[in-house]
Amino acid sequence: MHEMALTESIVELIEEESRKQGFSRVRVVRLEIGALSHVEPEAIRFCFEAVAHGGIVQGARLDIVRIPGEGWCLDCAKTVAVEERFGPCPECGGYHVQVTGGEDMRVQELEVD
Fold first, then answer.
1. Is the separation of the CB atoms in 25 and 56 below 8 Å?
2. In terms of DSSP H, where are the helices of the chain?
3. Cα–Cα dist 52/31, whole Å
4. Alpha carbon of 107 to those of 12, 14, 18, 21, 61: distances in Å?
5. Which tens digit of pLDDT belongs to each residue from 7-45?
6. Is 59 left (phi over 0), alpha (psi -120 to 50) or beta?
7. Is the sign of the CA dihedral 41, 42, 46, 47 positive or negative?
8. Dist CA 12 CA 67 (whole Å)
9. Which residues touch 5 (CB under 8 Å, ≥6 apart)?
10. What is the C-alpha to C-alpha distance for residues 109 and 62, in angstroms, rounded to an integer?
């Protein structure tokens, strides 16, 4: 399950920021997960509770914001919603859609003390 490794990296990143910025507690972690990122939000949520135990993020609320997939259709020259890679354009049905968004995962915001 690659979500465990991703979650460990998120917690490490937050702990590093706490050392740099001097906060001692994290109340909320707001995480953006793209629909095309191949990351399962519920698996991240499960792993977060396990990885956070005993650290600075223990007890923090994890808010996950899903970012929809987005692409640029080369055939109809429009920005379109993308449900899957290599799928057809929802506007014209063509298969020349370049993914432009919804592939990333990032910590969007922290609420800290």
1. yes
2. 2-21, 41-52
3. 15
4. 12, 9, 14, 16, 13
5. 999 999 999 999 999 999 999 999 999 999 999 999 999
6. left
7. negative
8. 23
9. none
10. 10
